[in-house]
């Protein structure tokens, strides 16, 4: 990536939302996600609902959010590639 290439702010926020939801491995409520990201709960809600609609997150049994089927499928795909020796694991 070139040094002067601007980053996409909305993508950075989306990835931060995924991190905030998945970092502990437990279903987290929107209020906790919003607090961790220092954003309004309505904004966190829209981010999470969009990620759910796209399959990257899903509603957990306890009402929080967890990794969704699309994200899990991507992770399985990466695991298969790593098991086949396609590339070294990420740190």
Briefly note the structural class of the backbone. Answer: mainly alpha
- Looking across the biggest beta sheet, what order are the strands in? 1-2
Given this structure, which CATH class is correct?
Mainly Alpha
Can you tell me the CATH superfamily? Winged helix-like DNA-binding domain superfamily/Winged helix DNA-binding domain
Low-confidence stretches: none
Q: What level of helicity do the residues show?
A: 40-55%
Shape: flat
Largest sheet geometry: 2 strands, antiparallel
Q: Write down the domain tally.
A: 1
Radius of gyration (Å): 15 Å
Summed over residues and divided by their number, the pLDDT gives a mean of 85
Question: What name does the CATH topology carry?
Answer: Arc Repressor Mutant, subunit A
The tally of helices reads 4
Extended strand count: 2
CATH architecture: Orthogonal Bundle
Proportion of beta-strand residues: 5-15%
Task: Report what the structure shows.
By secondary structure, this protein is mostly helical. The protein is built from 4 helices and 2 strands. The chain has one domain: Orthogonal Bundle (Arc Repressor Mutant, subunit A).
